[in-house]
Amino acid sequence: MISIDCDIASAYEGAISPEQVVAAALAALQAEGLDTQEIGVSIAITDDEEVRDLNRNFRGVDHTTDVLSFSAEEEPDFEEYVDTDVLNEEATDEDEIDDGATPRFIIPPEYAEVNPVRYLGDIVISFPQAERQSAEFNNSPAREVQELVIHGIFHLLGYDHEAADQREVMRANEEKAAHILDEVTV
Known about the structure:
- This protein is an alpha/beta fold.
- It has helices spanning 18-31, 48-59, 84-89, 109-114, 127-134, 141-156, 164-185; strands spanning 2-8, 39-46, 67-71, 118-126.
- Strand 1, helix 1 and strand 2 (39-46) form a beta-alpha-beta unit.
- It is globular.
């Protein structure tokens, strides 16, 4: 069973539906051969300001972007943006957290036994940014959001597009997912 939590800011509810968002996520998971597994993902469609805040706070980049993916399966790469001294001040026992160490969250084994869902992580999309770039890609704003959902899912699955060889693989997977989505929405 696939569980996709979709939160669309009220300003964009008429422009994109939860069903469109879910269809894109399912197409990406199907393209990867994961559509029969128990998977969870959270997708938020929001505004430029919220995406800019998240981009600044978690990536150190002070501008909006189209999509952010926060993987639940990878180690977070935000230590340089986290003031570990502040985090350590909150520790009640000085031995609990080494000075300068980033705290880790550990899922108790009993939770994993009752909740076998593989939670991939969270995707946050700026609808205004998707709307601005939709004309560039000859898409409707809703279709651009769907393309960004697909892109975000592949990031959650560990794909990247920094190196040319990785970009080619990721792009091929995105095209496969877009084709699946086209077949579903025809």
